[in-house]
Amino acid sequence: MAVITVDIVSDTICPWCFIGYKDLQKAINLYKKTIPGGSKDEIDINWKPFFLDQEAPKESIRMGDRMLKRMTPQQVAAAQQRLRRVGQAAGIRLSFDGYIGSSRLSHQLIYVARMKKGSAMQSRVTETIFEYQFERGADLSRLGTVLEVAVEAGLDKDEVQGWFEDGLGLLEVEKEAQEQRENGIQSVPHFIIGQHHVDGAVDIGAFLEMLGEAKQDKKQE
Known about the structure:
Elements: E1 3-10, H1 15-34, E2 42-49, E3 61-62, H2 63-68, H3 73-90, E4 99-100, H4 104-117, H5 119-134, H6 143-153, H7 157-166, H8 170-182, E5 190-193, E6 196-199, H9 204-220
Protein name: DSBA-like thioredoxin domain-containing protein
Domain DSBA-like thioredoxin: 5-210
GO molecular function, one term: oxidoreductase activity
């Protein structure tokens, strides 16, 4: 059995990170069905924080309004149409009615979920965060929303609230996010699979090829 580590550098306010993860999941399912011995292998996904907005905004704003700060109305409409089309292909019903604010609380929850409960729970929490952000129109800069996410993912509300009250993972998240930029990562999603580093949207076939090569590299170790 091979253990293949996949690092995903992402921000929870990035729709392409959600889309990329969905496509990675499909590639992993194919890997387990088509690669000899793949069904017995373990794919260990490790989420790494990144802040697209390095300075946390003081207040959340509507997602569409945030896009208008960077694009014309025509560009926003085109970008949303493309995201909806690509998202639908990935199995995501993207909504742009929600709010964008600081992603620090969500990253803190993701980090501590792995530290306390392991990688499977970390991915469950992360996927639930993405669903709240991009399908339900939630405001993840609010502690109450993040606690709701934690409970839906299977965590105990009182335990998680204690994590936040104690500041668990907060400094580590800031440090790791800074390390990503020091390592030359300027955009997300960024995937690290074995020897491969790849930015942005990756098709399922490319993910499958990288996973297969990572397995071969493990055999040679």
